[in-house]
Amino acid sequence: MSAARQPSPTVSEESAAGPEPAKRPRPPVPRGARAGSAAPPHGVHPAPALDPGERARLLEGRHHDPHAVLGARTQRGGVAFRVLRPYAKAVTVVAEELRAELFDDGEGLFSGLLPLTGVPEYRLLVTYDGAEIEVHDPYRFLPAVGELDLHLIGEGRHEELWTALGARPMEHQGVAGTRFTVWAPNAQGVRVTGDFSYWDPTAHPMRSLGSTGVWELFLPGVGEGALYKYDITRPDGSHTLRADPMAQYAEVPPATASVVTASRFVWQDAEWMATRGARPVHQAPFSVYELHLASWRPGLSYRQLAEQLPAYVKELGFTHVEFMPVAEHPFGGSWGYQVTGFYAPTSRMGTPDDFRFLVDSLHRAGIGVIVDWVPAHFPRDEWALAEFDGRPLYEHQDPRRASHPDWGTLEFDYGRKEVRNFLVANAVYWCQEFHVDGLRVDAVASMLYLDYSREEGQWSPNRHGGREDLDAVALLQEMNAVVYRRCPGVVTIAEESTAWDGVTRPTDSGGLGFGLKWNMGWMHDTLRYVSKEPVHRKYHHDDMTFGMVYAFSENYVLPISHDEVVHGKRSLVSKAPGDWWQQRATHRAYLGFMWAHPGKQLLFMGQEFAQGSEWSEAHGPDWWLLDSSYSAAGDHRGVRDLVRDLNRAYAAAPALWERDSVPEGFAWVEGGAAEDNVFAFLRYAQDGSQLLCVSNFSPVVRHDYRLGVPEEVPLWREVLNTDSEEYGGSGVRQGRPLRPEPVPAQGRAASLRMTLPPMATVWLRP
Fold it and tell me: What is the pLDDT, as a whole number, of residue 399?
C-alpha cells in the first residue's frame, strides 16, 4: 500500500509530490462519471491524525462505529472531514460557495479541517482516473432504523422483520438511497459491498446499533437492481462474504449475490382476499393440485405461467394449487427444500413482482395458493446462513442438535429468540407480501423430536427428560398463532408423519395450532393395498379401512404428493399391477375412493392424467401423452376428464366436505368384504343430505350386489362412475335409478341391489 501523501494546504495535490506510488489496480470509471479533475485545496488544514489502531480497525473491517471516524463533525478549529474512498485520486468537499479538496492520507482515506462554524449540507466530488463523480457522503446520515424496530428485534417480536432488516430502497433525510441492515451479533465488523463499489469490501463499513447485534448503513444513490453482499469480520479476524439472509430478491443461481428490490405491484384480488376465509377450511371444499413451478412447463417465467396455469387448474376444478418451495435455493435438484433465501422467491422464473402477478392471476381465477415452507433446516453453503458471523447463529450451538442426520443440512436454533423471530416473520411475510392462502410446513416430524433419525447417545433429552423438542413446539405454536391473527383466511398445513397429539388443535388448548395435517398413514396404507394383485388384496383389506380408526383425530389432507412418485416409488398408475387397462382402472377407482373419503385431497402434477413415468424436475410432466398424435392419448385424457368430474361432483356435494372432521359425517355400509375387495360408505352433509360411495377393487363385475342403505331415501341415482367409457372404462353402469328394497343388509332394514363395475368406484346420491 502506498505511503500517505500530505500536500500543502495551499498547493495542488499534483505539485505536492512526485510520481504517484503504485496502488491496487483500479476498476473502470463508474458509470455516470464526467471527465475532469478536482480543484486544488482551498482553505483546508490537516485534520487531527487518526489513531493507528482505529485506522487499522477501519481499514480491516473491524470497526463497530465507522460513523464516529468518517463523515464530518465540528471540533476546535472548524469542521473535520474524513472520507474513505478506495481507488480515488482525489476527494473534494462541495457545498454552497464551498469547494475544498481533502488531503490524501493513503489507503483510500482522505481528510481535512475546514474553518467552518457548522457542518454544511455537503457532497463529495470523487476523482478517479480521468473522471469524477459527485455523491452524498454515507457517513453524514443518522441511523435509518427506528428505535421501536430495534426494541422489537431485541425482544424477538418483530412480526414484520423484513421491513427493518435487509436492503430497503428509501428516501432518508431528503436523499434517495438504500438502507442496509443485517443481524450479525458475533461479528467484529460488517461492511456492505456490491457492484456499486466494484465488489471492493473496504469502502462501506457499517455501524453496530448497540446490543441488538444489528449493523446498519444508508448508502445514498444505491437503488433497485444493485447487487450486494456483506463482508463480515469473524471473531477470529478472518473474513466471510455472505448473501443477505433477509434479501427479498437474489441473482439467478448459480450466482449468489443479493439484489436490492422494491415492489410496485398493484394487486387486483381484493374480492378474493375479502372472502377467502368466509368458511372454515375443514368445513369447505379443498382439493389441491401440487406442482413444481420450475418444471410444470419447463422454461416458462412466472408471467408466462400466469397465462397457462390458472386456466388449466380451473378447468380441472381444483380449489387450490400448492407450490413446492419457491424460496431461493442454490441447487435445483433439491426441489427447493434446501433454502438459502427465505425471503426471496426464486429468480429462476422472474422477479418478486412477477411472482405476485402469478398469485394474483390465480386468485382472479378463483384458485387459492399454498406454498411449501421449510423451517426445519437449511444448507451449509459458505455464502449463506451457516455460521453466518463466524459462530453458530441460525443453527444450534450444540453440534448434535445443529446437524440434520438425514439431509446433511443444519437445523435452526428454535430456542434463540432472534432465530424464532426470523422464522415467524418469514411465515407472515409470504402471507402478507405475496397474498398466499396457505403454508404447508415441511418435515414437521423432524422438528418435533430430539431423537429424530438419531441413535442412542446422539441426542440429549429435554428438561423433563423427554424426547420432544420443546423449542420447536414453541416455534410452531407461535408461528401458527401469529399467522392466523395477522392473516385472516390463511390455512397452515403440517406434513407430520407421527402420532403427535393435537397437531390441528388450537394453541390455546395446548395444540400446535395447524389448520390441517397431511395423513401420511392413510397414504402409505392405501397405496400398499392398490399395489397388490387383486387376488391378494383380501389379505390387506384393513389397509383401506384402518384410516377410519383415527380419521377424526385431526383435520386431515389425503396427500398423493411428489414424494410418492420419485426415487423408484413409481408413478401412481404404475404402482398398480396388471396390464395397462387394469392399471388405469385401479388408478381411477383409487381416485374415486380418495375423493369420497373423509379428508381433503391433494394430487401431484402428472397424476391427473396417469403419467406412467416417475416425475423428474429436469423435464417435468409427460405432456406429450395428451397429444392427439399419440395413439394412447385418449387413455390419458380419459383419466384427466375423470379428475375434472371428480372435482366438480365433489364441490357440488356438501356431504363430501362439510363434516370431514367429525364422525357424524361418515358411516360404513360395507367395510369387511375382504373376499370381494369391496368397500362402501355413506357421507353426510350438515343438513343430512347423503352420498353413497362404493368401490370394487376386483377385476370382475359383481351383479346383484346387495348394500344396506337408509330406508327413508326413495331413489338413488349414479352421479359418478370411474368405469365410464368416457374415462377409458368398460362402461358398466346402473342404467337407471335404484330403488331400495325392504331386504335387510349390513344392519340396515333396506338395501340396494347393485351391479358393481370392475376395478371401479361409483358415487350415488338420493
Answer: 87
Residues contacting residue 652 through CB under 8 Å, at least 6 positions apart: none
Pick the catalytic residue: 495, 564, 641, 718?
495
Percent of the chain clearing pLDDT 90 (strictly above): 90
Contacts of 236 (CB under 8 A, 6+ apart): 390
Lowest mean pLDDT among 51-60, 119-128, 182-191, 453-462: 453-462
Query: pLDDT tens across 667-704, in order?
Result: 999 999 999 999 999 999 999 999 999 999 999 999 99
Q: Of 442, 564, 658, 660, which is the active-site residue? A: 442
User: 687 near 710, Cβ under 8 Å?
Assistant: no
Give the sign of the dihedral formed by CA 663, CA 669, CA 672, CA 675.
negative
Q: How close are the terminal C-alpha atoms of the chain, in Å? A: 90
Q: Find where cell 337407471 sits.
A: 736
Kindly list the distances between the CA atom of residue 65 and the CA atoms of 30, 55, 192, 367, 521, in Å, as whole numbers in the listed order.
27, 12, 14, 50, 56
In this structure, are residues 492 and 515 in contact, taking their beta carbons and an 8 Å threshold?
yes
Q: Are strands 227-233 and 600-604 parallel, antiparallel or unpaired?
A: unpaired
Amino acid at the residue 162: W
pLDDT tens figures, 355-366: 999 999 999 999
Residue 278 CB: number of other CB atoms within 10 A? 9
The alpha carbon of residue 230 and the mean position of all alpha carbons in its chain are separated, in whole angstroms, by: 23
Sign of torsion over alpha carbons 356, 357, 358, 363: positive
- Which grid cell is 581? 387397462
Q: Is the peptide bond before 235 cis (omega within 30 degrees of 0)?
A: no
Residue 406 pLDDT level (bands cut at 50, 70, 90): confident
- Is residue 328 within 8 Å of 318, Cβ to Cβ? no
To the nearest 10 degrees (0 to 180), the angle between helices 633-651 and 580-596 is 10
- Establish whether 495 is a catalytic residue: yes
DSSP one-letter code for 250: B
**Which residue, among 486, 485, 480, 482, has the nearest Cα to 506 in the 3D structure?**
480
DSSP 716-752: BEEEEETT-GGGTS------SPBPPBS--BTTBSEEE
- Rounded to whole angstroms, how far apart are CA atoms 106 and 4? 4
Mean pLDDT of the chain: 93
The answer to whether residues 650 and 285 touch, using CB atoms and an 8 Å cutoff, is yes
Rounded CA-CA distance 514/491 in Å is: 8
- Residue 24 pLDDT exceeds 60: no
Where would I find the beta strands (DSSP E) of 429-579? 438-441, 491-494, 516-518, 556-560
What pLDDT is recorded for position 42? Answer: 54
Residue of 383, 394, 393, 486 lying closest to 439 (CA atoms): 486
Largest CA distance in the chain: 117
Active site (annotated) includes residue 442 = yes
